[in-house]
Amino acid sequence: METSPRPRVVALALAVGVVLADSSIVVLALPEIYRELDTSVAGVTWVLISFNLVMALAAVPAALLARRVGPGRAAAVGLAIFAGAGLACGLADELSTLIVARCAQALGGALAVTAALELLPATVGSERRATAIWASAGATGAALGPAVGGFLTELVSWQSIFLIQVPVALAAAVPILAVAKHEAATGIIEPELRQTGRPHLWANLALAMVSAAIAAALFLLVLLLIEGWRLTPIEAALVVSVMPLAAILSGRLTDLVPDARSRAAAGAILVSGGLAGLAFLPKATILLTLPPQILVGIGLALVLSALTETALGGRAPQAIHGGWTISSRHAGVVIGLLVLTPVFTADINQQRHDAIDAGTAVILDSPVSPLLKLDLAERVSQQLETERGKVPTIEPAFEPKPVDPVERAEVEQLQSELQDQLDRGATHAFSTSFLLAALLGLIALFPIALARRVDL
Amino acid sequence: MSGRLLIICSLVASVLLVGAYLAAGGSSYEPEQVQDPCQPRAWSNPQNLGQIANQFTNSALDGAACQLGVSREALARALATPEGRKRFSQRYGIDDEKLAKAVRAGLLRAVDDAEEAGALSPLLALPLRRTLEEIPLDQAIEIINNAQGFLGDVESFLGPAGDIIEELLPGPGLLP
Predict the structure, then answer these.
(1) What is the DSSP string of A254-282?
(2) Among residues A35, A92, A433, B21, which is most buried (max CB within 10 A)?
(3) Are the Cβ atoms of B147 and A272 closer than 8 angstroms?
C-alpha cells in the first residue's frame, strides 16, 4: 500500500467515531424534530430506533461483506452511503423520509465501522492496538455525540447535525480510497481469511442489556430536561455531558482493576444505581441529576470496556466479532427504546393530566378574586390547548400580571404553586421508565455471572 | 484495587445515592392528588362576599363533577370557555342536557353547603333552590363562573328588606 499509515489511522478512527456518534448525536435534536415535523413522542423515537435497529441487523453481514469484497472498498462505499444518507436526513421535511434516510445511514455506517476494524490491524501492525483504537474512537464518538448534537441544534438547526456529517464522512473516506484502489487493482483482499470463531454469547448479551439501560438513561434524561423542565438543547447538552465526562475521568479505574468480570459487574451495578437515583429525584433541579449521572458515567466506562474486551479477546477475525459487539449494543438500544417508549409516553400523558388537575386545584382553592380566578383559568386552558398534549409552559398564561400589589403577589404565588405541580408531574412521569432501565442494567449481571462460569 | 472491592464500592455508592434520594422525598415527588368531588369540602369561615362566592363556586363545581363522575378541576376548565366545554363534551361523551342537569345539581349542593355552613340564611336558600332547579345551562354556568356577581345581585334585590329580615333571623347572617 502506498499511503503512509498515520492519515489512514486517523481517517479510520474518524469514520468509526462519526458513525457511532450518530447513534446518540440525534438524541438532543429529538424534541426539536418532534416539534418541527409535528409528530408524537412515540413517532420521533423511531428516528433513533431505525438507525440502531438497522445497525444491529446489518453489522455482522456488513463485516462478512467487508471481508469478501475487501475492507478498503467496503469502508469507502460505506462512508459514501453514510454521507449521502446524511444529506438526505438533513433535507428531510417529513418524518417518514427522515426515518428511511436514517436506515440508509445505518447501512453505510455498519459497513464502514466493521471494515475499519478489519483495516486497522494491518495499518497499525497490531490486532490488540487496532482493537483499542477502534473501541476508543467509538466510545469518544458516542460520548461526544449528545453534546455536539445539542449545540448544533440550538445554534444552527437539527438538520445541521446530519449535514455536518457529510464532509466529515467524505474526508474520512479520502485516505481509505487508496486502499480501495489497491484492492481493485490487485484483486487481493489483504486480511487473511481465517475461520470465524463463535461469538461470545454472554458478553454480547450483557452488552445488549447494559446498552439498553444506558440508551434509556440518555434518552429519558434528555426528554426530561428539554420537554419536562424546559431547558434549551445547549443547556441540556451541558447537563448530560456529565455522563461522558465521568466516563472519561474514570478511565483509570480500568487500568487499576485488571479483572474484566469484576469491572463489568461493578459497572452494571453503578449504571443501575444511577438510573434508580434518577427514578427517585426528590426535586426538579439540575443539581440532583449530577450524582446519578456520575454513577452512570463511571459504570458505563467500566462495563462497556470490560465486555467489549471480553467479547473480542482472543477471537478472530476481529471484524466479525466487532460486528457482533456493534450488533449487540445497537440491539440493546432498540430493546431499551421499544420497551420504555410505550411506558413513558403513557406516563407522560397521565402525569400531564394529574399535574394540570393539581394546578387547576391550586387556582380554584386560591384566595384570588373569583373574576381573576376565572380569567386565569381561561388563560391556562388556552395555554394548554396551544401546547397540544405537551408538558405546558404556564408563564404566558400569567402575563400581564395584575397592577394591584396584593393581587400581583397572590398571582405570583399561584404561578409558583402551579409550576411546582407541573414540575412534579414532569419529573414523576419518567420514574417508572428510569426504574425499568435500572432493572435492565441489573439483568446484565446474569450473563456476566454466567460468562464467569462458562468461558471467561 | 481488587475486583471484589470495586464491586462492594459500587454497591455502597448505589445504595447510598438511592437511600439519600428516598429519604429526601424522592418516592413522593409527584403532583398532589385532587380531592374526590363527591366528598364534602370543608367551608372555612367566610369573611366577605368574595370568600362566600369562592366557596359557593367550589361547592357547585364539586356537586356537578360528582354527578358527572369527573374531577372538579376538569369541569372547571370545561366551563371556563365555550371551546373548553366542547372539548369536555367530546372527551367524556357528555351532552349539554346532561351537563345542565349536573350543573343545576351542583348549584343546589352549593346552596345546601352554604346554608349548612351558616353563610346563607334559610330565608334565601328556599327561593334560590326554586330558581336554580329550572335555570337554563348558560345561566347556570354564568352563576358558577361569576358567583360573586350573582350573590351580589341577590343581596341588591333584597335591599333594605334583606337587612331587616337578617336582623330578625338567628345565625351569622345572610350575606356580609
Answers:
(1) HHH---HHHHHHHHHHHHHHHHHHHHT-S
(2) A433
(3) no
